[in-house]
Specification:
Length: 263
Amino acid sequence: MTRHTRILMSCIYWAFALYLLLPLALMMLMGFKDARFIGFPITSWTLDWYIGVFADRQVMFTFGYSTLIAILSTAIALVVGTWIAVTLTGRAFFGRAVILGLTLLPAVIPGVISAIAFRIYARVLGIEPGMWAIIWSHAVHNVPFVVLVVMARLSTLPRSQAEAARDLGADPLVVFFRITMPYLTPAMIGAGVFCMLLSFDDFVRSYFLGGYDPTLPVLIFAKLRSGMSPEVNAISTVVLVLTAVLGIWAERSMRRIKKQANR
């Protein structure tokens, strides 16, 4: 690669990074504006909007509600997705491609169509709109991502380890919990964090299947219907910071676990 090519690639990279980060920076700045409307110039600054986020009981309750839904739906998706990935990996049987295709289908269906289908199916099953209906829809939507990540990790697992454990008398359950599960832990952490963020940010399914208590995206949408304000920017900034912290923690945890596994 020539020097001019490296400079060009570097310019393209930083231009793309600026394209992504500049709107986020502007959003965060607007949360400090001492006025009720969005726009420049910012003549005075205040922390009242951020203080108000933590003082608002409705916002804090909704944040906890959305977090609980994200955790429970992710836990279900991890269990189901890992089981499907282990079942499908390394085995050739009739109908494997069909099962894999059906498993990945929720990830490619448009959100609105998926939400409508979940709403109809929930009515058929007698599931009332609310927290458990949202958890069910989020878990089904997140399973394909767990399957893809876990299957990619499983494809690099040396077969000699499981074979050696079986030769020493370990049954399949012991092999899974002593050999396979520790090897899959980094992938499961990554998939879990990704699914939590998907669930926390999901608007369409939460809107169609929600009850009287809205999730955070639905609450933000309701506030936006009355117009943009620095309050919405402050809420979004708090969520963005917490998301970044969670992502950094997940990345460091995966690296540490991989290093321990490679020793």
